Amino acid sequence: MAIESTVLAWNRTWRVLALAATVAIAAWILYPRGGRPELTVATVNNAEMILMQRLSRDFEKQNGVKLNWVVLGENTLRQRLTIDISTGSNTFDVITIGSYEAPLWGERGWLVPLDDLGKDYGYDDIFPVVRQGLSYQGRMYAAPFYAESACTYYRKDLFRKAGLEMPVQPNYEEIRHFAQRLNDPAHNVYGICLRGEPGWGQNTALISMLIHRFGGRWVDMDWKPQLTSPPWVEAVSLYVDLVRNDGPPGAIADGYNENRALFANGNCAMWVDATSGAGALLDPSQSRVAGTTGFARAPMAKEGRGGTWMWCWGLAIPSSSTRASLAKRFVKWATSREYIATAGERFGWMRIPPGSRQSTYENPAYLAAAPFAPLVHEAILSADYTQPSVLPVPYVGLQYVGIPEFQAIGTEVGQEISAALAGHVTVEQALALAQSEVERALKGRSRK
Amino acid sequence: MTGAAATKPAYSRHSRALLAPSVVALFLWMIVPLAMTLWFSAERYNLLSPGKNSFAGWGNYRDLLAHRALWVAMGNTLLLVGLVLVITLFFGTLFSLLLDQDFPGRNLCRLLVIAPFFVMPTVSALIWKNMLMNPVFGLFAWITRSVGLGAIEYFSHMPLLSIVLIVGWEWTPFAVLILLPALQSLNPEQVEAARLDGAGPVALFRHIQLPHLLRPMAVVAMIEMIFLLSLFAEIYVTTGGGPGLASTNLAYLIFRDALLGWDVGRASAGGVIAIVLANIVVLFLMRVAGRNLEDVR
After folding, report:
1. Interface predicted TM-score (ipTM) of this complex, two decimals
2. Contact (CB<8Å) A422/B260
3. CA-CA distance, A58 to A64, in Å (whole number)?
4. How many CB pairs under 8 A join A and B?
């Protein structure tokens, strides 16, 4: 009897508790949360963007806004955003996209033009090439956050020990010679590190720069693929030879991040890649070669023609956003001169988003902190993404081709080239397969 | 339907009415995505060219079937499933036999054998890729180097086998999880009797334990196949389907078409082909497993 009543009492207690919990949850859901407007911001998990997230508390306070952050890896973010924006759902108010997407999405009317951010925004301060890269038919669809070009990183100590000297402007013959001399697998030091991981933003980007340097092009003016032409064979053969003979083992799994880790760990004598790696390589807390890293221009082929590399991350606003004016205020804040100054003062000049504005490269504090700044400045100014090849081309873009099909094409070509790098097929076979893939993908265009 | 209901007691109609909502929900759950996939697979539909959708008929299928990638991917899918099944069944049986013995620390040992199954696929793939198989700073490279052999570049020279190794490691515990209790349920008197008749461990396994394990083995094979036909995370994390197409399976090919090419039509057609393939494989396996079980009886 006593036990029974205890059980009953317990039951009642539970029931009351459950009821209370239900009411509490319902109240929480139904309670009107008015007041501060909210903005949903989607961005990449690169160091510069993480910093933006931290600094954005200032913006929240000044404007009485609450920011919801969605921070994802580059590939995942791109997939998420493409699905979101092409289906017109208005999940995001501010998105982070690159110079590949901005003109394509602007053309489709998916983005709000950003030409009216005000006089004090300093449009003239933005590098023209950067602004152009984020525009379609003269209208800017994304505000530049940071931009990068390509350069050659090298180890000054290894070069000195071997009695070699890196020219300011190396060519690929010299690079091949250096790589042979400096390759020392017994001590886990490899002559050269290059991207091998397949993907349109990974090895295909490097290959694209190479073939343009060697005087090649992706397609001719009738959109006929040119992947079996001599410049392609020459460039890809050089790449495969370099990495197979003087590169680290397992290079086909190494993308940008893996190579940066290898170089920072002291495993590479040279590395040709994006300039945005420079900050991390000079940061002693992230790099064992901070004191011995040197910088040179991206290598040239014999004739020394063709473009290199140009990438810019920008902030854009989807047309479907219902808070476009507020979102504009955020975009303006995060890409302004004042933002760069605040970031530099608070977190150190090495960690500011570089490459977008002239004023950054006139700032003595930045120039003192970043010895690579003049080189990056020059590389960005010289990257003409409208003229990637010495031959006429129907596309824009240096390490990519600015057409919607390129994500698929670039991935497939990257796969075939990685098969050649792994030694499964010869370079000629890989390029023949890649050629047929690209032909298939561009069937619709070349018929036009 | 109505005829049958009329002859049955009235409560059956009530219970059917009460069941209906969940049955309908489950049916819709299955049929709506399937119908949409079938519809999309007959459309020219690319997310990046909005407003240009049109009816393609068999176009997407023709494109896919005429292309090398589909056939390579299909072969890889079957090879992957087959090899992992062989590995997990072999080691699963071996470990079950060992763990069925009485020895000190048996419980701890069982726990350790089961553990890999509870690691997330992406995590275990990353651990294998970066800590074990990396040719510069991986454990395997360190071992082979310290005995004077060079390092093997697993993901360039044997991409599919490397993935089979990782997946086999993940799924062997599952086989143990099913096979060990089955082995324990074997009647000890039967084992005793066989021993008295002079059966050694090999004969005991061949004639008593293996026949007893055939049915749970069929279960292991069936369930693993369902999961392995759509294997994705391990490939995405380690090789990205390469080099070339060497480790691309159907699931990865569909991912490439859908999320890199944004070609919804072709990806859907690939999905339909994957469904057909899965059904063929399951039918085949059920036949084989069924016949074996008949023999045992």
Report:
1. 0.74
2. no
3. 10
4. 102
